Amino acid sequence: MSKKQFFLINMARSSILNKKGQSLIELLMVIALAGLLLPPIFTGFMSSRDGKAQQKQRLLATSLMKQTQEETRNIRERGWSYLVPTGTYHPELSGSSWSLVAGAASTNGFTQQVVVDDVYRDVNGTIVLFPTPGVLDPSTKKVTTTISWLTPRPSSIDHVTYMTRFRDNLPLTETKNTADIQGFLAGTQQSTFVKATTGTFADDGELTLGAGGSSDWCAPTEPLVTKDLSGSGVAKGIVASPGRAFVGTGENASGQSFYNISVNIPSSGAPVVNELGTYDGYKTNDIYGQTIESNYFAYLATDTNSSEVIILKTNTSTPVKTLEINLPGNTDANSIFVEGDMLYVSAADSNLYRYQLSSDRTSAIAKGSITLKINNNNVSGNKIFVVNSYVFIAVNSTSHQLKIIDGTDQLTLKDITNGQIQLSDKAGVGVFARSDSNRAYVVTAVSTTSGKNEFFIVDTTNKDSLSIKAQYDTVANGNMDPKAVTLVTGNKAIFVGYDGDQYIVLKDIDKDEANFCGKISVSGLKINGVSSIIENGRTFSYIITEDSAKELQMIEGGPGGSFATEGTFTSQVHSFSFPTAFNRFTASVNQPISGSSVELQVAINDCSSSYVFIGPDPGSPTSSFFKTTNTGVTTIGGAVPFGSPIAGFNNPDRCFKYRAILKTTDPNQAPTLYDITFNYSP
Questions:
Q1: Rounded-to-integer distance, Cα 395 and Cα 80, Å
Q2: What pLDDT, on the 0 to 100 scale, is given for residue 40?
Q3: CATH no., domain 170-210+565-681
Q4: Which of 272, 249, 250 is nearest to 261 (CA)?
Q5: What are the two backbone dihedrals, phi and then psi, of residue 219, each rounded to the nearest 5 degrees?
Q6: Residues 539 and 558: beta-carbon distance below 8 Å
Q7: Concatenated DSSP letters for 401-441?
Q8: CA–CA separation, 453 vs 476, rounded Å?
Q9: DSSP at 180
């Protein structure tokens, strides 16, 4: 063997040995890599198989979901009662009809569940999550369908559907003129009024209180009643209340201190007035009347130093004294007013006194007093009027005629320093305040000074910064010396006095205007006081005079004014050819003061002539009402009762009506029903 051959053979052997070493290393590396990579590869492979199974389950669950929803819709179509009440169910086929059966169900490895929940809406009809501030919608349900499964791993799908009683929830709106129907105008009005302008529909539809009488304030006629009271006293104070009138006499000893008078006002013709009884022993400067449940009380401001305040119970013909109050010092009581259980009295000693009365008016607790001052000078209050614990005082001052005392604190009376205003150069003699306490109506003694007036509308919104909104000059317009003022229906003011035109009516008071619209002039007549009343759909002003044969007189007013204190509106019948479910409603209203209200009831039946109106309370349906305590422009909403809570009412049915009752304690501020919308399901 040659050396060359030997060398080549050795080289080949060495190469082979080296390659064997490399293969071993590579094999070890492959094994190591396989140990790292194969587990996730196997896991991914298994996951892929599991994902396909989960995807298959989800597809099956989705199919079951659609099937369950369709079965639930079929149940709704079968009848609304089959979808209620709320709870957890599953659909089952019974014969040829589907029904909801309580509880969830297992179906081919899946759990099938249908949850039915109530739905609440706000006054705009928008669904809200909670009962407050919403109201129950009896014709809508929230239906949550859930399909769940455990393998290959626990999962679920769900879907929310809102179902209505039928396929449509439709609105029915009434205003003054609704589309092609007459709306409010087609209803029945009793002491209510639908605003219109000579056969046209100039506004968006408003229903308000109607006129308070059959006569016209702006065209006052001779009194329907003139009553000669026993004795020959000078009548000084008058207050009218339903069925009664209280009169007090002063200045001389020829009459009685107090007259208890019954007044029966028929629907037409002259009222019947009788003197029930009297009480004597004092000279009465002012009088106030109050009805507490079935009890009548009269409050006398007298000039007797030991008994400046007398309280009489007048249920019987002969009044019975329940309490007398001796004011501090020796003084006379000028004027008296009672708000709730608080009695206020102004005295000749320049003080305003306040007492809290017991419910039976047999005792009183002093609740503060205050000395009335103008520019650091004491002044007395000639006449007081109390609204919302604010005391409006016509004061005996030639520099400032109106003061306001803040009595909102039950312990102290506060002088609102700037709550005084220069109106004239004569003393304030009469005052009347609006029930929201934002306006005062003041009369002063007659002034012959050029540019000085006697009647004023005062803006009292800001009690410590008063301003004059309107005024009227009696010298230039009738030469009256005013003594008293009151407000009557239809946004009118009446003030009375001596000489010239003794009885003047002004209109447009709500517009802060004082426009003349009527008067009475009787030669030699002297009128000391005036009060007004609305009763049996008629309105009257009561006046007291110094005519010893005609101390009490009654003058009827009306349609020139607009507002009775209570009226009822009954809508037209809304009829359908098939049973209809009335679900809920929303009414837009204005309740200008706390003493005004709009109350609603509904009636549904088979179109019989007898309708039973009910409210929301199932315990007392006929005596409950849909209403709100909010003032101003607001809404009244509610769910229409469903089923048959009382004989004569059935929802759903074919015919529907509603009734609105409008009330106010201030005949110058009436509530308004703008529109009402009902949601219904045919």
A1: 70
A2: 57
A3: 2.60.120.260
A4: 272
A5: -135, 65
A6: yes
A7: -EEEEE--SSS--EEEEEEEE---SS-EEEEEE-TTSSEEE
A8: 9
A9: T
Task: Give the residues of the chain that fall short of pLDDT 50.
Answer: 8, 12, 16-17, 45, 47, 178-181, 196-203, 560-562
Both structure tokens of 90: 């599953």
Phi/psi for 370 (5° steps) reads -150, 140
Assess contact for 660 and 568: CB atoms under 8 A. yes
CB burial readout 15-37, b (16+ within 10 A) else e: eeeeeeeeeeeeeeeeeeeeeee
**Predicted local confidence at residue 644, as pLDDT:** 87
Exposure class string for 522-532: b at 16+ Cβ within 10 A, else e: beebbbbbbbb
Taking Cα atoms as reference points, which of 361, 363, 358, 332 lies closest to residue 345? 332
pLDDT at residue 663, rounded to an integer: 93
Amino acid found at 102: A
Give the SS3 label for residue 55.
Answer: helix
168 in helix, strand or coil? Answer: coil
Terminal-residue alpha carbon distance, the chain = 118
Residue 517: how many other CB atoms lie within 10 Å: 18
C-alpha pair distances (Å), 578 with each of 67, 164, 682: 31, 17, 7
Write out the DSSP string of 521-565.
Answer: --TT-BEEEEEEEEETTEEEEEEEES-TT--EEEEEE-BTS---S
Query: Which residues in 330-341 are b (16+ Cβ under 10 Å) and which e?
Result: ebbbbbbbbbee
Per-residue DSSP letter, 216: B
Peptide bond into 652 cis (omega under 30): yes
The pLDDT value given to residue 201: 36
Count CB-CB contacts under 10 A for residue 536.
Answer: 13
DSSP 270: P
Q: What is the pLDDT of residue 202?
A: 41
For 225-557, CATH number out of 1.20.200.10, 2.40.110.10, 3.40.190.10, 2.130.10.10 equals 2.130.10.10
Residue type at position 146: T
Q: What is the CA radius of gyration of the chain?
A: 42
d(CA 621, CA 345): 45
Distance, in Å, from the CA atom of 313 to the CA atom of 365, rounded to the nearest integer, reads: 19
Q: What is the 3-state secondary structure (H, E, C) of 638-649?
A: EECCCECCCCCC
User: Domain limits of the chain?
Assistant: 3-164, 170-210+565-681, 225-557
Token pair belonging to 189: 């009005």
